Amino acid sequence: MAKQKADDLRQLKTDELEQKLAVLVEERFRLRFRSGTEAVENPLQFRAIRRTIARIRTILRERQPA
Fold first, then answer.
1. What's the pTM?
2. At 10, which helix (H) or strand (E)?
3. Burial readout 8-25 (b: 16 or more C-beta within 10 A, e: otherwise)
4. What is the pLDDT of residues 4-56, one digit of tens each?
5. Tell me, what DSSP letter sits at residue 3?
6. Domain coordinates of the chain in residue numbers?
7. What distances in angstroms separate CA 58 from CA 21, 29, 30, one per listed residue?
């Protein structure tokens, strides 16, 4: 999954962000699992997924009422 900017993510609705978060967490799990058994073709993918997850969680936290 390609890196997404925070501005692009902010345009999505909350449920869409939650869906995207679930997909990314699952993808990160599969990638980590696969890296234990075989070589990963793009190790920088870990960083991109981790940072996108952090962006989504930050935006979701901003949207929560104080």
1. 0.85
2. helix 6-10
3. ebeeeeeeebeebbeebe
4. 788 999 999 999 999 999 999 999 999 999 988 888 888 899 999 999 999 99
5. -
6. 6-63
7. 11, 20, 23
Say if residue 1's pLDDT is above 60.
no
Fold of the domain spanning 6-63: Helix Hairpins (1.10.287)
Joined tokens for residue 8: 């692009």
State the Cα angle at 28 between 2 and 49, rounded to 5°: 30
Handedness of CA 19, 50, 28, 6 (dihedral sign): positive
Contacts for 1 with CB less than 8 Å, ≥ 6 apart: 23, 24, 27, 48, 49, 52
Tell me the DSSP string of 16-65: HHHHHHHHHHHHHHHHHHHHHHS--S-THHHHHHHHHHHHHHHHHHHHS-
